[in-house]
């Protein structure tokens, strides 16, 4: 495949290396480190799919440009979901597929799946409070992380005692605390904790390297072309 990389930070560079090892070509790199290269320089004939990992303030503009160019796009940037309905509408209007995930790790997406199952079961029995904690490296821009938000949303759907989340500790019974820490070079750790007077139950995912994220993004890029609609990791993994 011919891959257009949008963003050439740590993730973009890791994706380029693994993509080449898998036999793909890098059609182009859109990033300040490659001045003069624009998304509008590419078409479906010159790029089979774009992989976008940038910043919250740039992500939607990049996704929009890809869809307008007719280039299928796999987006891993977080912090832009207030524009997601616009992106869905544009995908439908242009007939160009969009794949979005807050986290591309297969392990993390199994974590999401188990998180929802556990939330539903814990609600049935009562007596537990729940919180989400996420830890990332100091260069992580958005807070809370997209992964933490996805976990929180899964809990809210299946644990009716919680009706909203707050990015700090809270004593309000209906609020789900989502605690964020930024320290060192931590790749990403997410912990869901249920606590009662009798015991504590935790569901934890800890990433050791970026390899899982990169592999998932490339799986999505290989899966997406030829489809129509908006997709996520549940579609890719059949969850």
TrEMBL record:
Its EC top class is oxidoreductase
Q: Does the keyword Cell membrane apply?
A: no
Enumerate the active-site residues.
136 (proton donor/acceptor), 140 (proton donor)
Residues annotated to bind (S)-2,3,4,5-tetrahydrodipicolinate: 137, 146-147
**Ranges of residues in domain Dihydrodipicolinate reductase N-terminal:** 1-104
Q: Provide the alphabetized UniProt keywords.
A: Amino-acid biosynthesis, Cytoplasm, Diaminopimelate biosynthesis, Lysine biosynthesis, NAD, NADP, Oxidoreductase
According to its UniProt record, where is this protein mainly located? cytoplasm
Q: InterPro entries per the record?
A: DapB_C, DapB_N, DHDPR_bac, NAD(P)-bd_dom_sf
Q: What is its EC number?
A: 1.17.1.8
The molecular function terms in GO held by this entry are: 4-hydroxy-tetrahydrodipicolinate reductase
Dihydrodipicolinate reductase C-terminal domain: residues covered: 107-237
Task: Give, as in the UniProt entry, the pathway in which the protein acts.
Answer: Amino-acid biosynthesis; L-lysine biosynthesis via DAP pathway; (S)-tetrahydrodipicolinate from L-aspartate: step 4/4
Which reaction equation describes what this protein catalyses?
(S)-2,3,4,5-tetrahydrodipicolinate + NADP(+) + H2O = (2S,4S)-4-hydroxy-2,3,4,5-tetrahydrodipicolinate + NADPH + H(+); (S)-2,3,4,5-tetrahydrodipicolinate + NAD(+) + H2O = (2S,4S)-4-hydroxy-2,3,4,5-tetrahydrodipicolinate + NADH + H(+)
The similarity annotation says:
Belongs to the DapB family.
Function as written in the Swiss-Prot or TrEMBL entry:
Catalyzes the conversion of 4-hydroxy-tetrahydrodipicolinate (HTPA) to tetrahydrodipicolinate.
What's the protein name?
4-hydroxy-tetrahydrodipicolinate reductase
Specify the species: Hymenobacter defluvii
Gene encoding this chain? dapB
